[in-house]
Design brief:
The protein is an alpha/beta fold. It has 6 helices and 5 strands. A 5-stranded parallel sheet has the order 1-5-4-2-3. Strand 4, helix 5 and strand 5 form a beta-alpha-beta unit. The model has no long low-confidence stretch (mean pLDDT 95).
């Protein structure tokens, strides 16, 4: 009798590769975002989808505060249409970044969710900023 892990067979390698490639098209992680800022190669706009109050208390360096409810076609027209947006919120227990990603994609914009959010950033030991003016 197989273990609970092996009870359901793993996907064929080509199917697994397609799955993970698709997943990475939707997500990035804290380490990759941090590395981009550390290298100066920031080819995306980092958006914090939390409230302005929470943003002022603490946020990722380089992030702009734009709660998902304020992501309108008019507001997003401030950026070129080919801009890649990376969104985050409090962490895995929060769906604000998912809502932001949905809203941006419905506006026809490119978006990735930064998995882990603030919680993941803290887990990686990366520094936060506080008190920066918001973009909203």
């Amino acid at each position: 009798m197989p273990s609970p892990v092996a009870e359901i067979p793993a996907a064929a390698a080509d199917i697994a590769a397609a799955h993970y490639a698709a997943k990475l098209a939707f997500e990035t992680d804290c380490s990759d975002v941090h590395a981009a800022f550390a290298s100066g190669k920031v080819d995306f706009v980092l958006l914090d989808a939390r409230s302005p109050t929470l943003f002022a208390q603490s946020h990722l360096p380089g992030a702009l505060n734009l709660p998902h409810g304020k992501m309108t076609a008019h507001r997003m027209s401030a950026w070129p249409t080919d801009t890649l947006f990376v969104v985050y919120c409090a962490g895995p227990h929060c769906n604000g970044a998912d809502r932001a990603a949905l809203r941006l994609s419905r506006l026809g914009l490119s978006v990735k969710l930064m998995i882990g959010g603030m919680t993941g950033w803290a887990d990686e030991g990366f520094a936060f900023e506080e008190g920066v003016p918001t973009a909203a």
